[in-house]
């Protein structure tokens, strides 16, 4: 999946970047029915105004929707920059997140939007993962397992310990995946919003909700 190829680059750039599920302070620069583009001018606007909005109502984000060629996967921002407010308009509602670094991989087959969280401490990290059970539909048992494993302070010493907590269908109707990692007591989360029309059929959504994974969902033809 294209998302996997982008994750390493994002991790290198934004491990210290923070993001939380709340609106930012900057006023939107787009009208209510307008969406961000990712060509040179569009990225410049996002960087200047710290705001982006993407139309994901059909579960896809195509290159032509955002003014990009098929192979482009821009990473916008820097962990030292102010946060960017991002509105993700999904099938069932809008999810608003903030992040200092945003990765976008539009595609006709396997697309994604990626962002990092760097919680202030382990208590805050646990609270965010519990919220992900609603926001991204992650199964509670997966969160329980992570919290139990990382309660041992020796886990993640010197070498990063990480795991994918699974996939789910969030309250906005978007399919999300959450990866948690910890090293020397510092926890971070990588969130993928998974895109592709094949993931958003009633049958596919039922599988993802039941199994916490899209592995058995038939891929695009």
Characterise this structure:
This protein is α+β, with helices and mostly antiparallel strands and 221 residues long. Helix content is 26%, strand content 27%. The protein is built from five helices and nine strands. Strands 2-5-6-9-8-7 form a six-stranded antiparallel beta sheet, sandwiched between helices. It has a three-stranded mixed beta sheet with strand order 1-3-4. The longest helix has 14 residues, at 122-135. It is globular. Mean pLDDT is 88; it is low at 11-26.
Helix content: 25-40%
Largest sheet, in brief, is: 6 strands, antiparallel
Number of strands: 9
State the helix count: 5
Cα shape: globular
Query: Gyration radius, to the nearest Å?
Result: 17 Å
User: How far do the termini sit from each other?
Assistant: 15 Å
Determine the strand fraction and express it as a percent band.
Answer: 25-35%
Structural class of the secondary elements?
alpha+beta
Side by side, the strands of the main sheet go: 2-5-6-9-8-7
Key features of this structure:
6-stranded antiparallel beta sheet, alpha+beta, 3-stranded mixed beta sheet, 9 strands, 221 residues
How would you summarize the topology of this molecule?
Layout: H1 2-14, H2 40-49, E1 51-55, E2 75-77, E3 84-89, E4 94-99, E5 101-105, E6 111-117, H3 122-135, H4 140-150, E7 161-169, E8 175-183, E9 186-195, H5 202-211
Parallel strand pairs: 1-3
Antiparallel strand pairs: 2-5, 3-4, 5-6, 6-9, 7-8, 8-9
């Amino acid at each position: 999946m294209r998302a996997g190829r982008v994750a390493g680059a994002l991790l290198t750039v934004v491990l210290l970047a923070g993001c939380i599920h709340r609106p930012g302070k900057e006023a939107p620069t787009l009208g209510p029915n307008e969406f961000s583009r990712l060509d040179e001018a569009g990225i410049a606007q996002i960087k200047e105004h710290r705001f982006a909005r993407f139309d994901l109502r059909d579960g896809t984000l195509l290159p032509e929707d955002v003014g990009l060629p098929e192979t482009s996967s821009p990473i916008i921002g820097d962990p030292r920059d102010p946060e960017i407010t991002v509105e993700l308009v999904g099938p069932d509602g809008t999810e608003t997140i903030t992040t200092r670094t945003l990765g976008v991989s539009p595609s006709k087959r396997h697309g994604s939007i990626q962002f990092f969280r760097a919680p202030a401490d382990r208590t805050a990290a646990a609270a965010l993962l519990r919220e992900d059970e609603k926001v991204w539909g992650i199964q509670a048992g997966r969160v329980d397992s992570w919290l139990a494993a990382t309660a041992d302070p020796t886990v993640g010493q010197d070498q990063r310990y990480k795991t994918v907590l699974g996939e789910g269908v969030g309250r906005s109707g978007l399919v999300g995946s959450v990866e948690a990692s910890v090293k020397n007591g510092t926890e971070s989360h990588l969130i993928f919003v998974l895109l592709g029309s094949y993931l958003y059929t009633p049958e596919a959504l039922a599988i993802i909700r039941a199994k916490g994974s899209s592995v058995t969902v038939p891929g695009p033809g």
